[in-house]
Design brief:
The structure holds two protein chains of two kinds. By secondary structure, chain A is an alpha+beta fold. Chain A has 16 helices and ten strands. In chain A, strands 1-2-3 form a three-stranded antiparallel β-sheet. Chain B has two domains: 1-66; 73-325, no CATH class. The chains are: A alpha+beta, B mainly alpha. The interface between A and B is medium-sized, with 33 and 30 residues.
Chain lengths: 409, 326
């Protein structure tokens, strides 16, 4: 409402010729990647002002989590960034494990690394598909979906779900890999680098693609820092920051991989960084698969991991001395989980995903706070679009790789 | 008197047959596009209606005809009604001027080429008016883009065709083909390679096809100028686009690829070579749609004004010079 008033105020006292052209893009628009609404002030086709409005997909996940137990909360994490739900699961599980002081078995760690990297490939493939489609290259879209489909089928074999997995549990993973899954993953890992080369030949050698991405939305390293960009968007600006390298979690300390960085910080560099990340993820999966054979037969869930149905309250009856009765039995509330707080952050495909949890001893988080990359990245849109054209706007939304489920929570 | 009546009868019969044939071509062009692009993109394309989905265009047409024709409250009604018809008529009429074979052309006028150019410029009015009348911001932006695009590419296209006119010495399309057959290379494609290049690119832009589909850029402007249209009016815009492709391909065949002439005569099918060439060009249109991303508005203008128009001018100048010397 305030927006409308503001517009009226701006229009008042101005000649109708000077009146800026306002365009309301979204929330139902094919290239805003969900329900992002952008209020644009245009001058011809050039963007003077851009005002992102979010909240159309708000489901109150943080509040919901306060009424669900820790294991149930992981189900909510699927709905954050629904394209890479396995990575979100891992972030939640890591925070809770820190809180419970659980040690995860090595095999579970390796499996978690594999599924998070699969999530990264899925997410980057979907990003490439939609980014290319936004710019107008339709064929890449379907090629990418073909390979994403393959991965989703593998996910289905792993845990029975394709999009919202809830495969990771507090203390490990739900079930072990079947031998067929490992075979299929090996096949995928062998084949996938060729597919990446395919995509690159489709768009990387295309002059129109280069024209549309080079020198578009240039973000310097300092600006990227100030805007709070993380993940490939930050690395595209030349900052070599990756949570997987700096605060390794799961099995990332065991595997080798490179952190690609860009130089100019434009859309093309971010594209390049993601393409290299696809190869790196593929390599990580391969290493983890090799290591998986060493841990054959191990448990994939820690022995002391919490039960799926955590009781809401546990009362312990204890005997206390009583002056008249001699002894009295009094129920006393017992701590189910340790009181305290825990923080975990992971390198999700879109950026740094952090989870902060505060526990009051009951089976439900007292407060859960999630820092999602998409939310921060949306706040960078006004800065990045200034002076660009509408056609660049869709390229910028694409290059930031936002998911509205992630941002609105 | 009897002669006149029989002439009129044959003229009308020819018109109706050509109309039906070209409408069928347009309908099946949509089918061909969907099938070919599907094959290029590793999917199946329409395959439910009829054998191999062959009845899909008819099903689409029936569906669009029976749909409710929604007219938004804020539109400029008369203009909104007629805009799609302007588009379609201007795009489709051109086919009547193209000589399909030696002695078959519906309307053999001496300024045929000029007439086709005039029609294709007029068809921009359909786009601009629909964008304006819809009273929607997206449609308005689409209409603006279309007008800028059509005006700039019209010039490059005219320049390319002007060199052909210089070589043939006539604006009559039949005469242009005959001049080509009598020329040393049999087609103008070889001496007019630059002209052909300029013409094809401008023709793609003229039909609002990828990579120049800015007026209807799906991901930016949702659907551009026809975003408020529905039902049959929406279908008319589609028909106009595909008719435009057909006419532009026919024009390219006539002016650069030697029209009905071919390496050998095919008995009883005088239009064989013409149709083969047109199909090849149509395939080219579809092919680039599956391959290329979209240009940005300013880059499109750059390409038009800084590359194609100078190229067309140089080509025209060279043609005139060579014509003067020999």
């Amino acid at each position: 409402m305030s927006l409308v008033l503001e517009v009226n105020k701006k229009q008042k006292g101005k000649d109708s010729w000077e009146e800026p052209f306002y365009l309301n893009m979204g929330p139902q628009h094919p290239s805003t990647h969900g329900v992002l609404r952008l209020f644009l002030e245009l001058e011809g086709e050039t963007i003077v002002n851009c005002d992102p409005i979010i909240g159309y997909l708000h489901r109150g996940i943080e509040k919901l989590a306060e009424n669900l137990n820790y294991n149930q909360t992981i189900v909510l994490s699927d709905r954050l960034d629904y394209i890479s739900s396995a990575a979100n699961n891992v972030a939640f599980a890591l925070a809770f494990e820190k809180l419970f002081k659980l040690e995860v078995p090595r095999r579970a760690k390796l499996i978690r690394t594999i599924v998070s990297e699969m999530a990264r490939i899925c997410s980057h493939l979907l990003w490439l598909a939609t980014h290319a489609l936004d710019i107008g290259a339709m064929t890449v879209f379907l090629y990418c979906f073909r390979d994403r489909e393959w991965l989703l089928n593998i996910y289905e074999r792993i845990c029975g779900a394709r999009l919202t997995h809830t495969y990771v549990r507090v203390g490990g993973v739900r079930r072990d890999f079947e031998p067929e899954v490992i075979e299929e993953l090996y096949r995928f890992v062998e084949e996938f680098p060729k597919r990446i080369t395919d995509y690159e030949t489709l768009i990387d050698t295309n002059r129109i693609w280069l024209k549309r991405t080079k020198n578009i939305a240039v973000v310097s390293a300092e600006e990227a820092f100030n805007l709070g960009l993380t993940g490939p968007c930050l690395r595209g600006s030349g900052v070599s920051y990756d949570v997987r390298k700096f605060r390794p979690y799961d099995a990332y300390s065991e595997v080798e991989f490179e952190v690609p960085v860009g130089q100019n910080g434009d859309t093309y560099d971010r594209y390049k960084v993601r393409m290299i990340e696809l190869r790196q993820s593929n390599w990580i999966i391969k290493q983890c698969l090799d290591k998986l054979s060493e841990t054959e037969g191990e448990l994939v869930l820690a022995e002391n991991s919490p039960d799926l149905l955590m009781p809401e309250k546990v009362r312990e009856v204890s005997a206390q001395p009583h002056p008249k009765l001699g002894v009295m039995f009094k129920p006393k509330e017992k701590e189910i989980v340790p009181v305290g707080e825990a923080f975990a952050s992971i390198e999700s495909p879109k950026g740094e995903l952090s989870v902060y949890v505060v526990s009051d001893g009951s089976s439900r988080p007292w407060r859960l706070r999630i820092r999602t990359p998409s939310f921060v990245h949306i706040s960078a849109i006004p800065h990045m679009t200034k002076g660009h054209m509408i056609a660049d706007l869709v390229a910028i939304i694409g290059t930031l790789d936002i998911v509205l489920g992630d941002s609105d929570r | 008197m009897e002669d006149l009546w029989s002439n009129l009868f044959w003229f009308l019969a020819g018109t109706v047959i050509l109309l039906i044939v070209s409408l069928l071509h347009v309908a099946y062009l949509t089918y061909a596009e969907r099938k070919i692009i599907a094959r290029m993109q590793q999917r199946l394309g329409p395959n439910r209606v009829g054998p191999r989905g062959l009845l899909q265009p008819i099903a689409d047409m029936l569906k669009l005809l029976t749909k409710e024709d929604i007219i938004p409250a804020q539109v400029d009604k008369p203009v909104f009604y007629i805009a799609p018809f302007i588009s379609l008529v201007c795009a489709g009429t051109g086919i009547a001027l193209v000589p399909l074979w030696e002695n078959f052309v519906i309307s053999n006028i001496n300024v045929g080429l000029l007439f086709i150019l005039a029609l294709s410029s007029l068809s921009a009015y359909g786009v601009i008016l629909s964008g304006w009348a819809s009273n929607s911001r997206y449609a308005f932006l689409g209409g603006l883009r279309a007008s800028a695009q059509v005006i700039s590419y019209e010039i490059a296209m005219s320049l390319a065709l002007l060199s052909v006119v210089l070589m043939a010495g006539s604006l009559n399309l039949g005469d242009i083909v005959r001049a080509q057959i009598n020329s040393p290379f049999k087609v103008y494609l070889i001496p007019q390679l630059i002209g052909f290049f300029v013409f094809i690119i401008s023709a793609v832009a003229e039909c609002n096809r990828t990579p120049f589909d800015l007026p209807e850029a799906e991901t930016e402007l949702v659907a551009g100028y026809f975003v408020e249209y529905s039902g049959m009016r929406f279908a008319l815009f589609y028909l106009a686009e595909y008719f435009g492709m057909l006419v532009m391909s026919a024009l390219a065949v006539t002016c650069f690829l030697g029209g009905w002439a071919g390496p050998f005569e095919v008995p009883y099918v005088p239009f064989f070579w013409f149709v083969v060439k047109v199909y090849a060009l149509l395939f080219f249109y579809i092919w680039i749609r599956a391959t290329l991303p979209r240009y940005r508005y300013d880059q499109l203008m750059d390409l038009g004004w800084k590359v194609l128009i100078p190229l067309g001018l140089i080509n025209l100048f060279l043609t005139a010079l060579i014509k003067l010397i020999f």
